[in-house]
Amino acid sequence: MSDAIPGASKRFPTSHSGDLAPAMDHLDELEAQSIYILREAFARMKKLALLWSLGKDSNVMIWLARKAFFGKVPFPALHVDTGKKFPEMYAFRDQYAKEWGLDLRVDPCPPIDAVDPTLPPAARSAARKTEGLKLALAKYGFDGLIAGIRRDEEATRAKERVFSPRGVEGGWDVRDQPPEFWDHFNASPPQGAHLRIHPILHWTEADIWAYTQRENIPIISLYLSNNGKRYRSLGDADITFPVASNAANIDEILIELNTTKVPERAGRALDHETEDAFERLRVSGYL
Amino acid sequence: MNMIAPTSSIAKAVATPRPQIRIVIVGHVDHGKSTLVGRLLHETGSLPDGKLEMLKAVSERRGMPFEWSFLLDALQTERDQGITIDTTQIRFRTPSREVVLIDAPGHAEFLRNMITGASQADAAVLIIDALEGVRDQTRRHGYLLHLLGIRQVAVVINKMDRVDFAHERFAEISREISEHLIGLGVTPSAIIPISARDGDGVTARTPRISWHHGPTVVEALDTLEPARAMDDLPLRLPIQSIYKFDDRRIIAGRIEAGQLSAGDEVVIMPAGKIARIKSVESWPVTPVAGKLGAGRSVGITLDRELFVERGDIVSHVGTAPRDTRRLRARIFWLHDAPLAKGAQILVRLGTKEARATVVAIDKAVDPGDLASLETQSIQRNHVGEIDLALAQPVAADPYLENPNTGRLVIEVAGRIAGGGLVLSVNAGERAIPIDIVPVESALRDDERSARYGHTGAVLWLTGLPGSGKSTIAQALERKLFSRGGSPVFLDGDTLRAGLNGDLDFSPGDRSENIRRLAEVATHLARNGHIAIVAAVSPSADDRAQARRIAADSFREIFVATPREVCEGRDPKGHYAKARAGNLANFTGTGSDYEKPDAPELTLDTTTRSALNLAGDIEQMLAKTGIMSAEPADIAANI
Fold first, then answer.
1. What pLDDT, in 10s, does the model give residues A27-73?
2. Does residue B608 come out as left (phi exceeding 0), alpha (psi in the -120 to 50 range) or beta?
3. B537 part of the active site
4. Whole-structure pTM value
5. Residue in B with minimal Cα distance to A189
6. Fold designation for B446-623
7. In chain A, which end has fewer C-beta atoms inside a 10 angstrom radius, N or C?
8. Candidates B297, B314, B347, B351, partner chain A, best to mutate (most A CBs within 10 A)
9. CATH classification of A26-174+186-204+274-283 is 3.40.50.620, yes or no?
10. ipTM of the prediction greater than 0.95, yes or no
């Protein structure tokens, strides 16, 4: 028995003899895919919100949403606020929420006492955000949360789906992720549960910077070198540390990224406390 | 931590970027996929600082020799059990490619994860253990690559150290796997002997494989080509959504094949409606001039108002996809329960979703076991060919004519359960089994209208819950009946108790609810009755579909009671419950009711009685040719 589809080697038919459209470059391809994902989320979910952490990734994501929906972000931008971000981040949030016409919702995180005491200190501090997220979900009833995580950031994020179901308690069942292929997404969370939607999962750190530069997206100055140091990834001020760097503009950041072997989240204390700290955070609903 | 770049590297960084290629590594469990990935990253200098030390520590903690696979097997259960559960991705560079490596689990239980990973690849590396040879997952993965449309496959025969680098063993396995792959229409681009653990054949041709004259793994990866956008195929723009954020009505979607520009004459399938692209919209700069090709996410406006909906395909006149209610597909099945003949499933084709019935199953086999017998149902992780009867027409292409619009996925209970390639599209065939022959009525239309004093019609009362639809419908029913007419009242809620009892209030089920109401009402109208439908029907697209089904007999009546008034009335207590958060998906409290753009009649219930409004409807029916102005005078016709 041969299972080859008959004629599989024949040329595909063509209908056009005119000039071809301009070819897409790498950033065009990333952008088109992200827009497709955002539009699928908007078409298929009932109540969406975009998680805005004020960092470079979620800023790109908001920009992509404005492209997807022709200037208007048609769902709220949710900032689950630990209260411990850098002052520059709050200033950025207040300025651009207005300038970009966002429906901004700021929701606080519960105090540290409400968080699993068996987690190592930095992870426990970060887990406040998970608890804050749960409260916000209960308050607004969102069934889809758009989050700006990327595969290249961290090994368990690399295993994520684009549409990633969460349990009723917000948990991630890594042993039973649904199949996802050909840009067909599982968009039916069980009653009371929600989906995480990851429109920039396929981007890299360098892609984010190259796109930020091409599109002229505003950034927080902490990302640029000041006195030989810059922040590569921004989180809570007390558990995030700068790296040694002379990169004072995006061109220089791109050059650094092309040669460095330091991982992006090296300055994020919560990733490095124990082998499984980050996985434990994610399984219970962290981003 | 130091990020500072040495000045010597700066020139290199700004050089032309290499093409990016996505490669999946597949094969039987334990044949060494993750080890090969670890070795490739190490040899190409792609591991971040501290990663090697971290892996050593993790291995030691578990009392194991150094384990490359921990690099990708990041989950605790994966490390504890020594198997890959889910697919992952990691990047590295070869001399001429930017490679995204996709590691896929080899364990049969995680085939769904293998497919998730492999479906994103441009090319594949199939790995085989030299000692064990071709095993069932080797064959199964080979078959799935073919079903996923991956035609570039390099084979590596790993653990050559365990067969003393014997050329004969290599040649034997090469023959067996080549035969299998060529039978599937895939010719391996290279077959390479390696030892991933020791490094032979990965980047270097070591003395132990001196008899091998083909490429190393890295050299083979360098010759694989990224998938190209299908600009030169006929245009296919599956509609994702229609946006009305401002005065533009933008049709949004991604061009799956071909290209478009403003001014193009297009046909929207499956309905076959013709229009011209007025503009190509964008942000921040709009409109866009010139051509846009496959892969772009775009928004277009048309030169006329057409009812189009998510799932329709915009194409060029003359090269449109076919509309069909019958498809034949070759699929793989991932669901626990086997797929059997007669099964009711949901099919997704591009952005279209359609209910379907499996009317036939052929050639269902286990692709991992060559000796397996064909069965009548498709078991989990098996493949087969199926015939589908769809509940509504869809636009589709055979896979061979258009890979992107020629593949489908199947959903069971809201979760993807399988997928495959469209082998053929049977245009024009109905979704009914061939042994059912519709029988027409023995009565003529004019006989009926002579008796009733009207022709058939579908009166569609739409409005918020509590707006007064049912009250008006009842008043009208009474009026028509007293003058000898034949009204039939179809209340949305009443039908949900029976005919539509299987549907909930999700957007998909709401659409199906409306479709069924429209089908029943249209059937009544064809038989001369006036069907009065009272249904919230909040979605303009759903009502557009109802209008399509009922065609000329359709009259849309908007019961335009303001929300505050409806909420004050609240005859069924729905608003109170919804406000208290006990009624999910309730229309009325939010802004999810889409007002009709151009109803045949709009009713104001705040100033006039139901009886008066029923009179308005009667007048509209007289004006639009449904009934004579005065009650039929039967005596006058004798």
1. 999 999 999 999 999 999 999 999 999 999 999 999 999 999 999 99
2. beta
3. yes
4. 0.74
5. B414
6. Rossmann fold (3.40.50)
7. N
8. B297
9. yes
10. no
